[in-house]
Specification:
Elements lengths: L1 H45 L5 H42 L30 H5 L5 H12 L4 H15 L2 H13 L4 H12 L6 H24 L2 H20 L1 H8 L5 H16 L6 H8 L2 E2 L2 E2 H15 L5 H11 L1 H42 L7 E2 L5 E6 L12 E4 L5 E6 L5 H17 L7 E4 L3 E5 L12 H13 L7 E6 L7 H17 L3 E6 L7 H4 L4 E11 L2 E10 L7 H7 L4
Parallel strand pairs: 3-7, 6-10, 6-11, 8-9, 9-10
Antiparallel strand pairs: 1-2, 4-5, 4-7, 11-12
Helix pairs in contact: 1-2, 2-6, 4-15, 5-15, 6-11, 6-15, 7-15, 8-9, 9-14, 11-13, 13-15
Length: 588
């Protein structure tokens, strides 16, 4: 938090300085404007040529001041955004949740994301998310939804480690993305736009050069000869320019698709890429991404800024005065349409790759921010064989001040039957194992001091809901979920996490069904844990002592109060809390 506080103070000072300078320029610009009007009045009054030079000089100074003021305004917006980013981090570390939750990615049918709260309010995604672009958010979500192969995990670990110390680079990228945020609509249009091809017809290509040339020539002849016929010819050329423009107006609208801000979004894509192009990365993956941005000596960042400029100029087509003045005289908008076609034919195939580079950087930056905020978290060792062990394992979303960590090792016996009373920590522990396995498979550090695991396929049944829309009972929803899990057990090394399954049936049926599921896990060589309240189920470990192990969370009664230490123990739970709580609350 100290680092964020220092940056917050730095940007506060920068904003204050820029505000003062911006105000000074505003006052100076006002003075120059008044001075210009005064000189202009005197020039009309005296009709002397010597006023021309000071008028030109004052106009140039005024233009310079306007640009300088805009530059200071842009820098102030950038500093304010960076300040906001650091303020968000400070509030986040204090317990707030200022980041987007990924609610749109919630999927109850996914193998684990719904059960492990990967998306939605108070989710892992919200905890990690530092993306600013639509595609970056998608990339982070996809990374959390799909485990990577070992080589990709190791590449991500190295890249995240490289980015962790580059705090200001990560924040600059986020700030540039936030200042002019894209959207799904804009992203989809850009993707569609890049796949379309177009060109001016031969007549238009000739006309945009010939007609403006003839217009200029006829005006020059009129100025020399003062003959009205030349002016008539010039007027004809002006009308022909507008006719040629009107014939291509649909093409222009197709390129713009009626969307505003597209030039600003593309410009900021370019600025983000320019930031990345200047950095010498240590990580092999980051160097690979950077190499995608520079081809044949041409910079992706500068090319996107050029495209943004072309879009910006083409967008003036919606200004009727600009069309009459510029397209009627020099075919202004058709020249920019032609330049966009040239740009598209040359670079459009690379555009999606450049946006993907931004997206992957944002994903890696989010996980690097996670590592920066939690320096005690460790990168796991990724094993080639099926195994899993964590030392000091905890849930990453729980504050370290209240988090209770535990060790878990499935190297000798690979499936745990976990018992404990309500509120003792069973579900949280299952989620801790699952969430950290997901993080490990993304290349992220995990909430543990040491970890070794295979990149398992994670399968979870912890939160099942019935469906009124499908006339589906809770019990049938559970069975479907278990079927979804068992269908893939033989196809891969799986980590299965089950919490009190078959709650929708009677106790005998539930016990028998649970035992059969455990026996299936034994046969399929599955790693994992199952939490249960039924202590009879624990006896199954006697039948498979090489595979099954009993572990538990205990509860104690101290001074007529329940006490949970949330420490994982060997063996079967002894104490229960339900009867005590019912007596204490007066139910019985």
């Amino acid at each position: 938090m100290m680092e964020y506080q220092k940056l917050l103070e730095k940007y506060d000072q920068e904003i204050e300085i820029l505000s003062k300078r911006s105000n000074q320029i505003s006052y100076l610009r006002l003075a120059i404007g008044i001075f210009f009007l005064t000189v202009l009045y005197l020039s009309f009054k005296t009709l002397e040529l010597y006023w021309v030079f000071p008028l030109i000089l004052l106009a140039l100074i005024f233009i310079w001041l306007v640009r300088s003021h805009q530059e200071k305004a842009n820098r102030k917006i950038f500093a304010e955004t960076l300040r906001s980013i650091n303020q968000d981090e400070i509030e986040f570390l204090a317990g707030a949740e200022p980041f987007e939750s990924g609610e749109e990615f919630v999927n109850p049918q996914h193998d684990y994301t719904y059960d492990l709260d990967v998306f939605g309010q108070h989710s892992l995604f919200q905890f990690l998310n530092r993306t600013a672009t639509y595609r970056g958010s998608q990339f982070l979500a996809q990374t959390l939804q799909n485990r990577a192969a070992k080589q990709k995990i190791l590449q991500n670990q190295e890249a995240i480690d490289d980015l962790t110390s580059r705090l200001e680079l990560r924040q600059k990228l986020r700030a540039l993305g936030l200042i002019n945020r894209d959207s799904q609509e804009l992203y989809q249009f850009i993707d569609y736009w890049a796949r379309q091809r177009g060109n001016l017809d031969r007549f238009s290509k000739l006309a945009i050069y010939l007609f403006p040339f003839l217009l200029g020539l006829f005006l020059l002849m009129f100025a020399i000869t003062q003959e009205g016929s030349w002016l008539n010819y010039a007027t004809t050329m002006f009308i022909l320019n507008l006719i040629v423009f009107s014939n291509s107006f649909k093409k222009i609208k197709l390129e713009l698709s009626g969307l505003d801000r597209i030039d600003a979004v593309i410009k900021h894509y370019g600025l983000m890429l320019e930031e990345l192009e200047t950095v010498e990365f240590k990580s092999a993956r980051l160097r690979e991404l950077r190499e995608k941005l520079i081809k044949d000596g041409e910079s992706a960042g500068s090319q996107l800024k050029d495209l943004a400029y072309l879009f910006n100029q083409l967008e003036t087509v919606y200004n009727g005065m600009a069309v009459m003045l510029f397209s009627g005289s020099i075919s202004y908008h058709l020249h920019f349409l032609r330049k966009i076609y040239v740009w598209k034919n040359k670079y459009a195939n690379q555009l999606s790759d450049w946006i993907e580079v931004i997206a992957e950087f944002e994903m890696l930056s989010s996980l690097a921010n996670f590592k920066f905020n939690n320096p005690e978290f460790a990168f796991p060792v990724i094993s080639d064989q099926a195994e899993m062990s964590f030392k000091d394992l905890g849930h990453p979303l729980v504050k370290s001040s209240v988090r209770i960590d535990n060790d878990i090792d499935l190297s000798d016996r690979r499936f745990v039957i976990l018992t404990g009373s309500n509120m003792s920590g069973k579900s949280t522990f299952l989620r801790s194992v699952g969430i950290n396995a997901v993080l490990a498979c993304a290349g992220s550090p995990v909430c543990a001091s040491q970890a070794t695991l295979y990149p398992f396929k994670v399968l979870v049944s912890m939160r099942v809901a019935d469906s009124l829309a499908e006339n589906e009972s809770y019990f049938y929803a559970e069975v479907k979920r278990l079927k979804q899990i068992t269908d893939v057990l033989a196809t891969d090394h799986c980590l299965v996490l089950l919490d009190e399954i078959l709650r929708g049936t009677n106790s005998d049926d539930k016990r028998n069904g649970t035992l059969e599921v455990i026996r299936r896990m034994v046969r399929e060589n599955v790693y994992g844990l199952i939490a249960t309240h039924d202590l009879e189920i624990c006896k199954e470990s006697d039948r498979h002592p090489q595979v099954l192990v009993n572990k538990c969370f205990e509860v104690e009664i101290r001074n007529e109060e329940l006490y949970f230490d949330y420490k994982l123990r060997d063996g079967i739970c002894v104490n229960q809390s339900a009867t005590f709580l019912m007596k204490k609350t007066g139910i019985i």
